[in-house]
Design a protein that fits this description.
The chain has helices spanning 3-6, 11-26, 31-41, 48-60, 66-89, 101-105, 107-127, 131-153, 162-187, 192-219, 222-225, 231-235, 240-248, 252-259, 265-276, 279-296, 306-317, and strands spanning 94-95, 98-99. The protein is mainly alpha-helical.
């Protein structure tokens, strides 16, 4: 099953979110800005975060509004802004098989664009006039930025522990997934039991999502990944797949030696080959499956609906 099938119960709502995104980014933009904005809109990504906003709301309450579309568009804008800034930090040249903003227009425009996207996101959130949702999304954005800062500060730390990695990705990735689910439920007025269930779902979903993303950076090819693999290796970021490899390898010194050679493409190829042929890949798959299972468990507290089923399927999609 692909995302189109999973999103089918909310296809109209997602189309409305796309309209809000286009209107918010193109309104008042001059010719130079429109070129950059159109480049962003031409690579829509998976739209998982806005889908979670809508699915959480619809699984809690049978209704849809323009405010919900604005919240869904806002969390996607925050996500896009973070990717624009991540590409600068990681010196990335490709995303979704297209040039990144920094590689096509330079770092100055990329930085300014990221800031602009954040500001537009919070304008949309403010228009919903819900203090709890503003707080929820603001705190998630702060945590996301803090997680990114932690990750950069820990680059090349060969003593990094798995627990520290999990804490970082809870902030960097899972936080915005949690805000997506909770804000959707908050907007339709669902109760705290539903909020708690969706928060637990999103937390574990986000962790599984990031581990999967980190694993793909190590084993996928450029065409399927949409960018050059080995980005984490090149900047010295130790992800869970690599930490598992260090723990499972019979020759840890060789693995560490490879990690100390980020400028050598052959070193990355050797590391990749060792990971694929080791117990570390199996362990990483088990870690992902465990978090997916933890994500799905609390959904039992929600009433049966096609929207709840899509939340299950989205977890399985990982």
């Amino acid at each position: 099953m692909d995302l189109k099938d999973i999103y089918s119960p909310i296809s109209r709502e997602l189309n409305r979110v796309e309209q809000v995104l286009k209107a918010s980014l193109k309104n008042g933009s001059n010719k130079s800005m429109l070129e950059v904005v159109n480049h962003i809109l031409a690579s829509p990504g998976k739209r998982i975060r806005p889908a979670l906003v809508i699915l959480s709301a619809r699984a809690s309450h049978n209704g849809f509004s323009d405010k919900l579309a604005k919240i869904a568009a806002a969390v996607e804008l925050i996500h896009i802004a973070s990717l624009v800034h991540d590409d600068i930090i990681d010196h990335a040249s490709l995303r979704h098989n297209k040039p990144t903003i920094n590689s096509k227009w330079g770092q100055d425009i990329a930085i300014a664009l990221g800031d602009y996207l954040y500001s537009e996101a919070f304008r949309l959130v403010a228009e919903c006039e819900n203090a709890d949702i503003i707080s929820c999304i603001s705190l998630a954005t702060k945590a996301m930025c803090e997680g990114e800062l932690l990750q950069v500060c820990e680059r090349n730390n060969l003593k990094l522990l798995k627990e520290h990695y999990i804490v970082t990705i809870k902030k960097k990735t899972a936080g915005l997934f949690i805000a997506s689910c909770k804000s959707g439920a908050m907007l339709v007025g669902s109760n705290r039991i539903i909020h708690s269930a969706l928060e637990e779902y999103a937390l574990n979903f986000g962790i599984a999502f990031q581990i999967t993303d980190d694993c793909l950076d190590l084993i996928a090819d450029e065409k399927n990944l949409g960018k050059a693999p080995g980005a984490d290796f090149k900047v010295g970021e130790l992800t869970l797949p690599v930490l598992n490899l260090i723990l499972k390898s019979k020759d840890r010194k060789e693995i560490i030696s490879l990690l100390k050679q980020p400028d050598r493409q052959d070193a990355f190829k050797d590391l990749r080959e060792k990971f694929i042929n080791s117990e570390a890949l199996v362990k990483t798959e088990e870690d992902i499956a465990s978090y997916v299972s933890k994500a799905k468990a609390p959904l039992k507290k929600l009433g049966n609906s096609c929207f709840k089923q899509s939340l299950y399927l989205l977890a399985d999609y990982i």
